[in-house]
Amino acid sequence: MSSWGVTLEQIKGIKSGTTTVGIVCKDGVVLAAEKKATMGYLVASKEDIKIVEIAPHIAMTQAGMVGDVQALTRYLRAEVKLFELRNRRRITVKGAATLLSNILYAGRWSFFPYYVQLILAGYDDSGPNLFILHPDGSNLEEKKFFATGSGSPIASGVLEASYKEDLNIDEGKKLAVKAVKAAIERDIGSGGKGINVAIIDEKGFRMLKEEEVKKLIESIEK
Question: Mind listing the domains of the chain with CATH numbers?
Fold first, then answer.
């Protein structure tokens, strides 16, 4: 039995592969993810979007079981909306991470909890923020970078070697793409048609256009 309340055999029976990356920059947060969705040895999709907007200033990357991450996205969006309606103010990134942590913790005692690993990031009055959440409800703040999914060991190696203090968003975009690209080349569970990259800064959340990402990839390959 695992600490999540399910057997190790049940966990091993779930096949998933992903690489997502979050980088804290001095002027915002950069998120990146590849696009392959797998079902065991079957490639279910080559164009899966694994970065979702939760609020205009908050986004989340998704790794794990697709149904679980989709349900959690719906729950969190609804809870954030309710909070802002009741309190008449924008929720902080830390507040959204706490909400999500509570949802995950409540599910850990069920027969089968949410099988996910999530990066929740955003920009508020305190600046850029990045939190890591696990199936047991743990909620950890990260001040530099983090990678999730089957390709995370490869991506983390790139991030560890190249990250520097006071990184700006332009540098962060290039590093995020470099990390995900390395994982795609070496991790069988990562791939798909291109890479998604998102930025969250004082202007809010925005996804980079495909042409912008292609230019970033080309600059790395030179």
Answer: 8-221 (3.60.20.10)
